[in-house]
């Protein structure tokens, strides 16, 4: 189909169908979009043009950035040990489990086994954040803890992919230096800029954020990395500004969830080849089970140790077991660099997408905890005034 407008109508029509189905069955629209994309990709075919890939990629970048803006520094400080521990173990347990399984039981060479371990070590920021926003849990303490743990988990994935496979050259050094400078300057410059331009119809704030994300994303690509990688860090750097002005992230979420993220999730689903999946269904299920089992063995005991409510512990473990953005990026990295063949890529991507759907579906359907907004911090002076008996 060469008509760009009809192609656009097809993709947005599928996104609309996914939204309606999501409302009717009370399941996250991100998961429904993945399923709709898989069915459409294997029946009517979905055209992955350059502009579709751009919109899908920008959707992943913006969604990852918005997830970073939800990291509340006060909540992270209050739950630093739990977020760090859950995130670190959430990466290490499946990475080592899948790596050893692929190397010694499947007989894959070390490079392929390492890509398998990295691909299935992730927690999907895109899926988790989409679920959090849809359910309102991004405004709760448990939601903030999960998002912070997601960051730590995926930071481990990014570092592993970078350390094992990065090209150590001047481009990588320049990318690292520019990212460090941007992260140092943004918390100071952005609040001043946002205040100076104000809320305008022309959306200068949104354009500024997009400029930073696309600029750093372009440098990441030149360095042989992925454009989505700096987005989370930029989001964390701008988190105080976004938390102070809830209207700004609300406007950016409208842009993301209306026109960008549907392309990302539909594209992710369309990459699943039902024929190849049927041929390797057993291995895909086994890899998915290995990932979920190692996540549970690593994370669930930690939720008990940090005194999460049982329902919150299971919900956290299930959401930390998801995978999509960095998992597919890692698998695609292996394919494009000749580390994986097409069959191995299909197996890993399908297992990754399965990990986006299965644990999230179970978490939402049976283990969603009670909604508890973040407790407001009461200044010491105000607390003392409240504690004083009322005068007669």
TrEMBL record:
Read off the InterPro entries from this record.
Cation/H_exchanger_TM, Na+/solute_symporter_sf
Instruction: Specify the domain of life of the species encoding this protein.
Output: Bacteria
**Where does it live in the cell?**
Membrane
Q: How does it sit in the membrane?
A: Multi-pass membrane protein
Q: Which UniProt keywords apply?
A: Antiport, Ion transport, Membrane, Sodium, Sodium transport, Transmembrane, Transmembrane helix, Transport
Q: What is its main location?
A: membrane
Pfam families tied to this protein:
Na_H_Exchanger
Bilayer-crossing residues are: 51-71, 83-102, 114-133, 145-164, 170-187, 208-233, 274-293, 314-333, 345-363
> What Gene3D superfamilies does the record point to?
1.20.1530.20
Q: Under what name is this protein listed?
A: Cation:proton antiporter
- Species name: Benzoatithermus flavus
């Amino acid at each position: 189909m060469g008509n760009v407008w009809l192609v656009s109508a097809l993709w947005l029509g599928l996104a609309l169908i996914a939204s309606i189905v999501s409302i009717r069955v009370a399941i996250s629209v991100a998961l429904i979009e993945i399923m709709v994309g898989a069915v459409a990709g294997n029946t009517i075919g979905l055209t992955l043009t350059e502009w579709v890939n751009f919109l899908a990629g920008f959707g992943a970048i913006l969604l990852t950035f918005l997830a970073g803006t939800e990291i509340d520094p006060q909540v992270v400080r209050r739950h630093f040990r739990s977020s760090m521990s859950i995130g670190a173990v959430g990466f290490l347990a499946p990475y080592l489990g899948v790596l050893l399984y692929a190397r010694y039981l499947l007989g894959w060479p070390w490079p392929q086994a390492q890509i398998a371990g990295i691909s299935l070590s992730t927690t999907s920021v895109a899926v988790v954040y989409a679920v959090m926003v849809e359910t309102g849990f991004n405004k709760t303490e448990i939601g903030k803890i999960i998002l912070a743990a997601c960051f730590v988990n995926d930071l481990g994935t990014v570092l592993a992919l970078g350390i094992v496979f990065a090209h150590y050259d001047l481009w990588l050094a320049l990318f690292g230096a520019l990212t460090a400078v941007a992260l140092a300057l943004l918390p100071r410059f952005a609040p001043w800029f946002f205040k100076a331009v104000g809320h305008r119809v022309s959306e200068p704030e949104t354009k500024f954020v997009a400029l930073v994300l696309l600029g750093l994303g372009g440098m990441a690509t030149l360095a042989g990395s992925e454009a989505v990688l700096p987005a989370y860090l930029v989001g964390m750097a701008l988190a105080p500004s976004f938390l102070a002005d809830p209207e700004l992230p609300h406007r950016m979420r409208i842009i993301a969830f209306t026109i960008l993220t549907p392309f990302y999730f539909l594209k992710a689903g369309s990459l699943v080849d039902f024929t190849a999946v049927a041929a390797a269904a057993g291995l895909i299920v086994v890899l998915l089970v290995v990932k979920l089992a190692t996540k549970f063995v690593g994370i669930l005991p930690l939720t008990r140790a940090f005194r999460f409510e049982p329902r919150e512990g299971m919900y956290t473990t299930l959401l930390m077991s998801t995978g999509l953005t960095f998992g597919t990026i890692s698998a695609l990295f292996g394919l494009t660099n000749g580390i994986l063949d097409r069959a191995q890529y299909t197996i890993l991507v399908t297992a990754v997408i399965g990990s986006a759907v299965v644990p999230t579906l179970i978490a939402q359907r049976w283990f969603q905890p009670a909604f508890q907004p973040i407790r407001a911090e009461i200044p010491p002076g105000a607390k003392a005034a409240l504690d004083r008996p009322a005068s007669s």
